[in-house]
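Limitations

Structures in this collection are predictions, not experimental determinations, and the ligand pose is part of the prediction. Treat each record accordingly. The example that follows, with iron/sulfur cluster as the small molecule, is included so readers can see exactly what is and is not provided: the inputs are given verbatim, and the output is the predicted complex.
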Amino acid sequence: MPTTEQAIVGRGAQEGAQLMREWFARLDAAAERGEPAAYVFVMGSLAEILRAFDMHLVFPEINALQTAVRHVAHEYLGAAEDYGYSPDVCGYVKADVAMQLQGGKHPMGRIPKPALALATNACNTYVKWAEFWERYYKIPMVTLDIPGSRSADGGAARGTPAFESDRRYLEIQLRELIASCEQITGRMFDLERLREVLGYTNRMAAAWQRILELNQARPALFNALVDGTIYLGVLNALRGTREGAEYFERLVEEMEYKSAQGMGTIAEEQYRLLFVGVPCYPIFRRFHEMFADRGGVFVASSYLWFAAGGLDLGFQYDLSRPVESLAEGVLVGVRHAGDAMLFHDRSLIEQVDLFQADGIVYHPVKSCRTVSTSLAGSRKAIMKARDVQCLFIESDMMDRRVVSEAQLKNRIDAFFEGLDSRRLRTAAATA
Ligand code: SF4
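Predicted complex:
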């Protein structure tokens, strides 16, 4: 009989990995049966509407990062570059294009073809990427224009006329998306089904917000870089499902148990770190070890905000007005994700205080300008505002040609030496 601790600790990581395998297996079966899918992105997937039509969801960003984690990204990148894509283009796009050129062949199973391409303006690459599917498969493409906040303070507050005008603008677009789905699937839109799906997302959002809060514990309960990436996968892939809601509620249970027992991550927590950017997937495990071996634990990560599709805010849809409220939730969530990228310093200062962080690791990547732009300026602003040690390391989330493990290790070791001597100085000053 396993003890409570054995049964509960690490359950979320194991179940999350299993759920992702099952999700890929379902996509593989859908591809086998020739069932169509909707291709979507994590920032504004509109999973709720698509699920109301029982469409399979494909997240090309998740497919792409999986090729890097499984050490085969270079094969896909090479194929896309041979096809004519520049080495400068986002690695996720190239991995996906190469996969499409190979009939959906993916290390986790075959990916079904799209019947609909859905993009938002959350990243400019999204639109050009979806245009590839539109042309290649001759399918309809819907682009949602989600108004940004246009300011560092989050823009017009909910309930104001300016916010309501943006919300209505988005609601009209969602109604057009619904009409497109009706046309593609030949099914009538079912408002009750949307309500049910939104209810599951509400449960996931509430749980995810709680999990992020719980990680303020000392020691931190999970590593935002490693465990957090598994949780994010489930958050996106199973958004709006009963399975997803139950998974995250069980994860809250695990985190509350760990918190009550004072249990941290596997590494002995010496330094609490924030991570900014996208992880280094080509050497994912090694990258994490370079920090964990020195007692560095990632207690939070900007990735967990901008790739969570807005669920980090815990937004609760009003089920009495599903479409209207969905428009509001998407506006609030995507806008917040955009602000967190554009005004890093504000979000980070808040996180440094909340998580009592000792250091920040900036990881700009060659592939993704959207999350890498302005990081140097952000670092300067943070160092002025708070007494934290910052590390700036550049590599990529897909392309192993620009990942130099030895160079990264040198920089990371020097960062920890800085943290050690800072701690000694503080101890001496207070002795
Ligand atoms: S540029 Fe960045 S945010 Fe945009 S699709 Fe590529 S990885 Fe995603």
